[in-house]
Structure formats: structure tokens, C-alpha cells
Design brief:
The structure is a single chain. With 272 residues, this protein is an alpha/beta fold. The protein has one domain (3-265): Rossmann fold (3-Layer(aba) Sandwich), CATH 3.40.50. The chain contains 11 helices and 10 strands. The chain has helices at 10-27, 42-48, 77-89, 103-109, 114-122, 124-134, 171-177, 196-200, 215-223, 247-250, 256-264, and strands at 2-7, 32-35, 59-62, 64-67, 96-97, 140-143, 165-168, 190-193, 205-209, 241-246. Strands 1-10-9-6-2-3-5 form a 7-stranded parallel β-sheet, with helices on both faces. A 3-stranded antiparallel β-sheet has the order 4-8-7. Helix 2 packs parallel to helix 3. The chain binds fructose -6-phosphate. Fructose -6-phosphate binds at residues 36-40, 63-64, 144-146, 150-153.
Amino acid sequence: MTEVIVVGSPREAGELVAGAILRLVSDRPDAVLGLATGSTPLPVYEALRPHARALARVRGFALDEYVGLPAGHTESYRAVIDREVVGPLGLDPARVRVPGDDIAAESARLGGGPAADELALATAGDRYEQALAAAGGVDLQLLGIGATGHIGFNEPGSSFASLTRVKTLTERTRRDNARFFASPDEVPQHCITQGLGTILRARHLVLLAFGAAKSDAVAGAVEGAVTSSLPASAIQLHPHATVVVDAAAASRLRFLDYYRQAWAHKPAWQQI
Ligand code: F6R
């Protein structure tokens, strides 16, 4: 089942999830983390900071990246991951991948120019999937959720079997993410994102959501129909999915009392 844990604050969520990551890493120091960007996972990364030494050998794979931003743009997810995760947690940058981060090198290998760039982009998803497989897959995947119900940048209509590929962002998502850019027009139309099929292969999914603006998407994901119209509902197909929400994000859940009861009485040995 999807376990729902209602916490008092994003900070509490960060501590809880950081604890799960540290337990994983103490068993397997080179564990593979699936990294999300955006605002939601920040409390997790903050809670991990004092434990950076334990994370030195961790490997990471980001969920998604914009397509079409100038190289080195401060809001590219490569830049965000470097600034918010790799640097503060002392991860080895060579062990942290972001979809499409090899496009320039691949294009150069193909001889460069627009046709090589295009081919390098078109095949970037396959190379990312190969890198994920070579790493042995993701142990723990952090997820946020968009107002459209996206996870990664899998917008409504995404196949549950989809793998890493180029997608078009909805106008709603472009508007929501405009806060990170100087103007809404600067938000790219396209992205490269792990697919729902890719995400479902991770061994443990941890979806976080805070605030009332996420409450409809959370209720749909956890209790609604399993449908590609609400891509996050794919988590219901996963044998080990944990949803960590504050009271506002949980406010539209029908079985909220039960989730609270189950968490309050959860045997300590079970962990999350
Ligand atoms: C980011 C990602 C997205 C975000 C979602 C929520 O890597 O994959 O699915 O998690 O758009 O964004 P925030 O957390 O900024 O509300």
C-alpha cells in the first residue's frame, strides 16, 4: 500500500526522510539516490547537511532537466543539483548524473553541429537509462508533485511504461516554475525527464508535498483512480511508496484518520 505520513512541518518531513536515507547509506555507503529538484525536497537536503561525511560515496540520478537553457544557466537542474545537493552534502560531482548532462559531449563525439546536437538530445534518454541500469537502479527516489499531478516532468497523459525522454511542459507547470526565472517566457517548453516506468523501478519511492495547493494532486495520487491523467497515481502500483505530507497537503485525503492511526501505531522495527 502507499503509506501516508502526516507531519507537523516540512522540517519534520526533512528529518524523517533524511533518517531513512542515512539508514540506507549505513547499510550501503554507495547507495543510489534519486534526486528531485524544486522547493519540496529542500528540507531533506538541509537535514542531511550535518551528515555529509556519511554521504561521500553516494551516487545520484536527478529526475529531470530543462531542454534549451543556455549552458550554465543558474536554474538548469544541473546547476540546482550542484548548488543544493552536491556542494552542501559533499557528494562527488562525477557520481551525480542529470538527464541530458552528456548531450554536449555526445554531440562533439558525433562531429558537432545542429544535426549532431539533435541526435545527441534524441538519444540522451536511452543513455540515461543505460547509466541507471549500470548503477544497479535507484534505491530511494525522492519525488515532489506538481499541481498537474506530475512526478518528474511526466505531465498528464504520460505512459506508465515511459522511460527517460524529451517531453513538453504544460502551461500550468511553466507558470508554476516561472518563479525561478526572470520572466515566464524564459521557462523552457521542453524537458528531459525520467519516465513513470523509470520511476516505478526504484526500490523505494518517497513523495513529499506541502501546502494546500498540493492537496488535490495528493488526494488524486493516493486515493484516486490509477490513470495517466494523474501521473502520480502510478505510485499506487509500487510495492514500497511512502507519502510524507503536512496537514494542508493531506487535507483532502478521505482516509486521513486511518493514515494517522497506522503511523501512530506503526511498530518501530518496520521503519519507513
Ligand atoms: C523536480 C520535479 C517536479 C517537482 C514538482 C514540484 O525535479 O521532478 O516533479 O517535484 O514540479 O515542484 P515544487 O517542489 O517546486 O513544488
